[in-house]
Amino acid sequence: MKRRNYLGVMAAASLIAATGTAWADNYPSKPVKIVVGFQPGGPTDVVARLVAKALQDELKGTFIVENRPGATSNIASEMVAASPADGYTLLLAAAPLAMNKYVFPKQKFDPLKSFEPISKVSSAPGVFAVSPQLPVKDFKEFMELAKKTPGKTTYGTTGAGGTQHMATLRLEQLTGIQMLHVPYSGGSGVLNDLIAGVIDSAFMTSTGAMPNLEAGKVRPLAVAGPQRLPGIPNVPTFAEVGFPGMVSDSWNALLAPAGTPKHIIDKLAKVMMKATQSEEFKRTLIPQGAVLIGNTPEQFKAELQAEVAHWGEQFKKFNVEK
User: Fold this and answer.
1) Residue range 119-137, pLDDT digits in tens
2) How far apart are CA 265 and CA 261, in angstroms?
């Protein structure tokens, strides 16, 4: 290559690199939408608003939470997957992102190919709770009741194939009980009907549900995590009541459309890693049983790949259909 041509190529490469850096430095130059696939006030929405505030404070831009509930969060996921890959539409996802391809085989996106992972924000264990109107005071009594009336004790979920549904199928397998599934379009419907006694039981995410658990509006019987929760210290784990294999958690994470520039992904991830160590995140989420994570894009990508594979095996095992 002639010296003149070589210098020209190097100058062009430097210009492209400088332009990319400037783009990242100027980001965001307009409002950014953080899309949530669940109703306002739910546990994922709570995390989304913390994330939006952290990004806004750190990057000095405008970050707006937009709720697009429905289809076990698939409406939101599909919207973000189809959005321009410019960093101005993000997804605050939950565990169903890794499951839904098995529930909706015709969905228009792939959880591994349609998004750029940014960072997993937090995870929280499930809590198995019953209506205060149900005449049981602990998990042993619940099992006795359910076994006396197989197929009649009800449990609510946010939809077939979701975290709550899969956790309950696992519970049925481990305990030998049989219950009746009552699906809802959102977590608030499950909670309200559990309080009212319309349904008998439900797995609930500790984040968001903790105030109702602490207040006794619903009766928690067991925690599907490695340890008891600070807000409900008298409630045992499933391991303590004889079922160590009953583990279930829900996570929240930030993603962008596939093809979003790495400069922007890294910039957002850096803020998330810092935010998850902040006092505001700790003060809001840890008392509700959440574990704060804030990992790198590469770490989250590896975790998501493993989880998608895991749920593929579980759906085959339980033969779950929508």
Assistant:
1) 999 999 999 999 999 999 9
2) 7
Query: DSSP string of 158-198?
Result: SSTTSHHHHHHHHHHHHH----EEEE-SSHHHHHHHHHHTS
**Domain tally for the chain?**
2
pTM of the model: 0.81
- Which segments of the chain have a pLDDT < 50? 18, 20, 23
The total number of residues shown for the chain amounts to 322
Strand partners of residue 60: none
Question: What sign results for the dihedral spanned by CA atoms 128, 237, 215, 204?
Answer: negative
Q: Where are the beta strands (DSSP E) in 89-248?
A: 89-94, 115-130, 154-157, 180-183, 201-205, 219-224
| pLDDT tens digits, one per residue of 43-68 | 899 999 999 999 999 999 999 999 99
Residue 172 belongs to domain spanning: 125-224
Residue 236 lies in a domain: no
Q: How far apart are CA 16 and CA 24, in angstroms?
A: 12
Could you tell me the end-to-end alpha-carbon distance of the chain, in angstroms, rounded to an integer?
61
